[in-house]
Design goal:
Layout lengths: L8 H5 L20 H11 L1 H21 L4 E7 L9 H12 L7 H4 L5 H9 L2 H11 L1 H4 L5 H11 E5 L6 E7 L2 H21 L4 H34 L4 H32 L5 H21 L22 H39 L5 E3 L12 H27 L6 H16 L5 H14 L9
Antiparallel strand pairs: 1-3, 1-4, 2-3
Helix pairs in contact: 3-15, 7-9, 7-10, 11-14, 12-13
Length: 456
């Protein structure tokens, strides 16, 4: 090959000529403006640029269809009620010192302005994420061994946001499986509802817990008192000391009246008949029986004056009633106190449950997650368009750069330094053999980078 820098027409057409000069100034039009020269250069090398663009489009198309599709399931939650207490934030702040899973977000929750942000913070907590990871075995799905890596990937695949104006919370879960994405979104809702109930520390909640514990203690005391009262009443034949004493006094008064009448009758009969008369003996027997009954009710020991078995009585005597009344009244009073306390605590516990239900924020689902029918990623048309655009820009820059490089004076210091550096790197990489020329020849054949035949 001749060392003459002026190339012949045969050299301009042959793509194997590596020293072919592409000088931009040769394309300058009548105006001599550099923009027109570059546009004309690109028009002449349009086939090269189109081939590079086509290669980029094909590569981008293959890449777009090789990427595994991702599906996104979305759900929206209504903002919590305005009566929501700040007890959850206080509990989370306490968990910072204890090192629990929810303590990691306590610092942010203490400065929250809306309770919806608190919901988002709870959903981002380690407790919720760990439960979801264990439920769906996401470590195997994400092909990781550590829980920390699974949390990171789950956070990347889950987007949570709160609308500042409406307060609506949006949860978007992305996954390669549309069914799993929907199930994870539903799990976020259920875990949020479950955790809010577990961490509710409102005044009504604390009151309800206290009342329920107090109810259990009072119930045990009431059962014990009722049992003692029943055993005492059964042992001493006492049902109601007041009514029973009043009834026994009335019965004793009646017996006393009958006894006085019988004694009067007996004295009258003695004045008429002798002691052996039948009527006299009958009257005496009646008087004796009435006296025994009266003595029995009065508490006099009838064992000395009556045969065996007469001392047995269903009810206690009048003498024993005052002694029994003291113990009975104490047991009865204790039982009534426990009953009254149990009734009051039951009413207060029910009221506390109602108040707790009002203060506990319920998770209200505005839009339930549904199985997505269309993939959310990758955007294949966009990838293909960007790939073609990048290839077009690369071909354009390559054409303009090569023309500018070949138009630079070979004795330019910058060009000499670049050539020297390129030669050294090529020698270090072992590309000084003929393989380099062969590869370049193949690339030139593929891209057909040569001057148009009609180039002057």
């Amino acid at each position: 090959m001749s060392s003459n820098p002026v190339s012949t027409e045969q050299d301009l057409v042959d793509p194997s000529v590596v020293s072919e000069p592409l000088r931009v100034h040769e394309y300058e039009g009548p105006t001599g403006h550099p923009l027109f020269s570059r546009l004309r250069l690109l028009v002449d090398y349009r086939f090269f640029v189109l081939r590079v663009t086509a290669c980029g489009l094909m590569l981008a198309t293959v890449l777009a269809f090789l990427i595994r599709p991702t599906y996104e399931s979305r759900t929206q939650l209504m903002p919590p009620d305005s009566e929501f207490s700040s007890g959850l934030a206080s509990l989370l702040a306490m968990n910072v010192q204890s090192g629990s899973g929810l303590g990691m977000i306590a610092g942010e929750l203490l400065g929250l302005k809306t309770s919806g942000s608190l919901f988002v913070g709870i959903l981002r907590s380690r407790t919720v994420e760990d439960r979801i990871i264990d439920k769906f075995d996401l470590k195997s799905v994400y092909n990781v061994r550590r829980m920390q890596d699974a949390r990171r990937i789950l956070e990347e695949n889950t987007q949570m946001s709160e609308d500042r104006k409406s307060g609506i919370i949006t949860i978007a879960v992305a996954d390669h499986s549309p069914q799993r994405a929907t199930a994870i979104a539903e799990s976020y809702i259920s875990e949020l509802d479950r955790l809010v109930v577990e961490l509710n520390t409102s005044a009504a909640h604390r009151e309800r817990i206290f009342l329920e514990g107090r109810l259990k203690s009072v119930k045990q005391d009431l059962d014990s008192s009722a049992k003692q009262l029943s055993e005492f009443s059964s042992k001493n034949a006492t049902i109601d000391i007041k009514d029973e004493g009043r009834a026994m006094l009335d019965a004793a008064a009646i017996l006393q009246g009958h006894l006085i009448a019988a004694q009067s009758e007996l004295e009258g009969l003695r004045q008429i008949f002798s002691d052996g008369n039948v009527r006299v003996r009958a009257a005496r027997a009646r008087v004796d029986e009435l006296q025994k009954k009266l003595d029995q009710m009065g508490g006099v020991d009838p064992a000395a004056t009556a045969p065996a078995g007469v001392a047995d009585s269903v009810y206690p005597s009048l003498r024993k009633l005052p002694l029994l009344a003291v113990t009975y009244s104490e047991l009865y009073r204790n039982t009534k106190i426990q009953e009254t306390l149990f009734e009051l605590l039951t009413q207060q516990a029910e009221l506390a449950k109602v108040q707790e239900a009002k203060e506990t924020p319920s998770v209200k689902v505005l839009d339930s997650p549904v199985i997505p029918e269309k993939k959310s990623f990758p955007p294949r048309l966009l990838i293909m368009f960007l790939g073609a655009l990048f290839a077009f820009m690369l071909g354009t820059l390559w054409t303009l750069g090569k023309a500018s490089w070949q138009g630079t004076d070979p004795r330019h210091p910058g060009k000499l330094l670049a050539m020297e550096t390129y030669t050294k790197i090529k020698g270090d990489l072992g590309l000084t053999s003929g393989n380099g020329n062969g590869l370049r020849h193949v690339a030139d054949k593929i891209l057909w980078f040569k001057r148009p035949p009609n180039q002057p």
